[in-house]
Amino acid sequence: MKYVVENKVVLIGTGAVGVAYAFAVVNQGICDELVLIDLDETRSRADVLDLNHGEAWAPNPVSVSFGDYAECADAAMVVVCAGVAQKPGQTRLDLLQTNLAVFEDIVGRVMATGFDGIFLVATNPVDVLTYATWRFSGLPSAQVIGSGTSLDTARLRFNLARYFEVATTNVHAMVIGEHGDSELPVWSAASVAGRSLARRIAARPEIRVDIDDIFVRTRDAAYEIIGAKGSTSYGIGMALARITRAVMSNQKVTLPVSALLQGEYGHGDLYIGVPASIGRRGIREVFELDLDEDEQAKFDASVASLRAVQDPAFARRA
Fold first, then answer.
1. pTM (predicted TM-score)
2. Which end of the chain, N or C, is more open, meaning fewer C-beta atoms within 10 Å of its C-beta?
3. Can 179 be counted among the known catalytic residues?
């Protein structure tokens, strides 16, 4: 990687998700410099002014400005939240064809500046568009990350914490697979307040129905939120901020992100939500969980669901 400004982030797309992310970054003081790029310059400049007015109360000052693609040349990260938003009744995969064209243009503009930092992708369908970013950019796969199942995992931990009446930080559970309808919880590796979920269910078999219902509500939460207010924003904004902090601080923390599989879980040439170690140079390592037979079958099905959309889309571009 070439020289980049140590803690400069460029955000492309300042819709509901982008602004929520920007607020989380400023509120947490994650970077030194945050540059916003959007087609609606008037509104975006107003967001810049509004965000800068919170500097007095932030833990660390973040310089927020409006800019253009030239700002990507020396950025440490480019975060992409641009694209056509998901509409009520529409699946994330339905968005693919429209957003592929948008991403080819965005990634091309970024790479034309000589950018050699980390891409973080949030636009849906995030797994396929992260794969597209990798293909369009020509960067090593370690430098291209998708938000993956980070939000789904946060939702699951929150719902389980409410059910068991413990702190969310005391819940260790992960959602993997497609960020969408075919995702799955890894119950075999889950624990609540230090006790495995499997043991809790063995002691109280009647709660299994509740646990399964918790996952369904977790998986379908986006549809409920989008139906009521048009988009999800705060949860994904904070998830993106968490990934950004992991990169900026070289935390080497394991997070469920969209990463390229290269033989892990028996699959390859596909971005999908899996646990990965995140540091200053992006994805350090993809970790393989010890899935049970049912979980592996569901993960295989999730891979197949993504391939059924991804492969034809890129075959047409060959």
1. 0.94
2. C
3. yes
